């Protein structure tokens, strides 16, 4: 085998230009496939990153009715408060790193002096900051005494602090939530500031969220602002992005035990498909996880057919390259007819001749495959620079392309190799 490989390199080097032109079809085909696959993978990773965010792996589980988010002021009944046992079971689920439970309202008015802000109001537990990826910029987090002694304290995010205090320190200031005064004890910001990559107006509509300030209060203080309790939602942090769907489903099942009538995930899906809503009882009412991975997969599948067509078109170059290899190998057999006859005359067997020419074809296309991979990676980077499309080189695609190009050499080199192996030694020696 090593001798065959050495002879193959010797033959390729002795006909450099002819060998390069033979490999050109393979190079173009492999380069096209690598650049297309790299662009597809980069786009898919960007879609996932835009939706999931900067690695927080969070899954939101919220109360839904008839496929849309449910609120208590819609007259909803039949939802029991989550028990400490249910919360602990969720925190103990496999692949769960953190879990937090909270109540919230949007477009809630917060006042400081003559300034106001319409933003989010959240009643949170002590795990909220760690789970949702916040760090303290000023002040402190909520402590156990804030919950047990019902301290009227609040934490602002950086957007709310900037809106209400315009660069001044918010610590110790008193804000009004509804008609109730709350003292600001902390200001928070995201640990990793993440912005989705926006390449078009369609991307802006798909990925951009409305920037609103948030005010956090201890969840036990929620009845101070609202005269009744609202059902708690959950945010669960999975260990890995790949675990998000599994963690979301498991959290759903536990939280749905709080629905009177025991709404299951299957029942919820059925209710959503039918679009039913009971408006006052537990029918169609259930906790539902926002499966961002599923949404990402849906967006990725939109262009799947186009991507497959591009790959098929690129594969035509490999077919053309394979035919070129077969043609040049037939020429090589013809040129080396006397050499083949001499080898057979001194005892070389058919399989030895067959192996030599198959090896030469495989080496020729393998070199073309390696060069094609290099050109494909460079081409993908050029496409990224010119069009702004993200790229991510796929290692399996690189390895597969080289192996596939080697296979092309074996397949298309088989006919010339068989022809060489079956030559009559006497006729071969007399050939000029």
TrEMBL record:
Principal localisation: membrane
Residues annotated as domain MacB-like periplasmic core: 19-252
GO cellular component: plasma membrane
ABC3 transporter permease C-terminal domain sequence ranges: 313-425
Pfam families, per the entry: FtsX, MacB_PCD
Record's keyword terms, sorted: Cell membrane, Membrane, Transmembrane, Transmembrane helix
MF (Gene Ontology): transmembrane transporter activity
Residues passing through the membrane, by range: 20-40, 310-333, 353-379, 391-415
Subcellular location: Cell membrane
Membrane topology: Multi-pass membrane protein
Family as reported in the entry's similarity comment: Belongs to the ABC-4 integral membrane protein family.
Protein name: ABC transporter permease
Organismal lineage: Bacteria, Bacillati, Bacillota, Clostridia, Lachnospirales
């Amino acid at each position: 085998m090593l001798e065959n490989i050495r002879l193959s390199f010797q033959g390729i080097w002795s006909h450099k230009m002819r060998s390069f032109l033979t490999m050109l079809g393979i190079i173009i085909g492999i380069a096209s496939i690598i650049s297309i696959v790299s662009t597809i993978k980069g786009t898919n990773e960007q879609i996932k990153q835009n939706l999931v965010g900067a690695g927080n792996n969070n899954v939101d589980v919220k109360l839904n009715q008839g496929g849309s988010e449910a609120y208590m002021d819609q007259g909803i009944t039949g939802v029991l408060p989550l028990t400490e046992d249910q919360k602990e079971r969720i925190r103990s689920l496999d692949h769960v790193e953190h879990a937090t439970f909270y109540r919230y309202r949007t477009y809630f008015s917060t006042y400081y002096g003559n300034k106001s802000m319409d933003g989010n109001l959240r009643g949170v537990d002590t795990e909220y900051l760690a789970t949702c990826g916040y760090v303290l910029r000023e002040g402190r987090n909520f402590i156990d005494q804030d919950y047990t002694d019902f301290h009227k304290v609040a934490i602002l995010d950086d957007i709310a602090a900037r809106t209400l205090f315009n660069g001044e320190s918010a610590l110790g200031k008193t804000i009004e939530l509804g008609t109730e005064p709350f003292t600001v004890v902390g200001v928070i910001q995201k640990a990793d500031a993440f912005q989705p990559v926006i390449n078009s107006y369609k991307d802006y509509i798909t990925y951009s969220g409305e920037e609103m300030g948030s005010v956090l209060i201890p969840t036990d203080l929620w009845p101070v602002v609202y005269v009744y309790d609202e059902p708690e939602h959950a945010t669960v942090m999975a260990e890995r992005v790949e675990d998000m769907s599994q963690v979301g489903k498991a959290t759903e099942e536990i939280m749905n035990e709080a629905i009177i009538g025991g709404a299951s995930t299957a029942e919820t899906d059925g209710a959503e498909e039918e679009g039913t809503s009971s408006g006052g009882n537990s029918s169609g009412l259930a906790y539902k996880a926002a499966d961002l991975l599923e949404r990402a997969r849906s967006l990725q599948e939109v262009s799947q057919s186009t991507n497959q067509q591009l790959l098929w078109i690129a594969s035509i170059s490999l077919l053309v390259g394979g035919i070129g290899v077969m043609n040049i190998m037939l020429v090589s057999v013809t040129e080396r007819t006397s050499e083949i006859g001499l080898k057979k005359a001194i005892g070389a067997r058919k399989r030895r001749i067959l192996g030599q020419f198959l090896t030469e074809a495989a080496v020729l296309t393998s070199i073309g495959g390696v060069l094609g991979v290099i050109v494909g990676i460079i081409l993908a980077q050029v496409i990224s620079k010119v069009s702004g499309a993200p790229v991510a080189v796929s290692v399996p695609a690189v390895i597969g392309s080289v192996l596939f190009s080697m296979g092309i050499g074996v397949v298309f080199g088989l006919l010339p190799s068989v022809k060489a192996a079956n030559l009559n030694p006497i006729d071969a020696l007399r050939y000029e």
